[in-house]
């Protein structure tokens, strides 16, 4: 049996899981939203179901798939060590920014606005193809 990491390594499976985190979906709904052929969707749903990432229920003539998040706990547990690392760095950056001179904030805001205006002008000048 594949590990949780091997299951989510496949981009189409991650896309399907991202849809199912929002709501349960039928094969047809997944197919339309991801613009993926029905056999491909069905193949990935079978892999996800066999690995315990999704479960299905029958609703009239449709099979609805729903996310089962428990297998993702393995991934979350592994990522926790990195989350602590990044949290410390983001906290340090936030403290640094809080100590910055407020006049620097205004200067940076003006520079950002000037870049945006320049980008808009150059974007408008490009001919349409």
Helix content: 55-70%
What is the N-to-C succession of helices and strands?
Answer: HHEHHEEHH
Number of domains: 2
Based on the structure, what is the oligomeric state of the protein chains? single chain
CATH superfamily of the largest domain: Winged helix-like DNA-binding domain superfamily/Winged helix DNA-binding domain
Low-confidence stretches: none
- CATH class of the largest domain equals Mainly Alpha
Q: Please count the helical segments.
A: 6
Radius of gyration: 23 Å
Can you characterise this structure?
By secondary structure, this protein is mostly helical. The chain folds into 2 domains: 4-67, Winged helix-like DNA-binding domain superfamily/Winged helix DNA-binding domain (Arc Repressor Mutant, subunit A); 82-124. The protein contains 6 helices and 3 strands. The protein has helices at residues 4-8, 11-20, 27-34, 38-50, 72-99, 102-125, and strands at residues 25-26, 54-59, 62-67. A 3-stranded antiparallel beta sheet has the order 1-3-2. A hairpin with a 2-residue loop joins strand 2 (54-59) and strand 3. Helix 3 packs across helix 4. The chain is elongated and about 65 Å long. The mean pLDDT is 84.
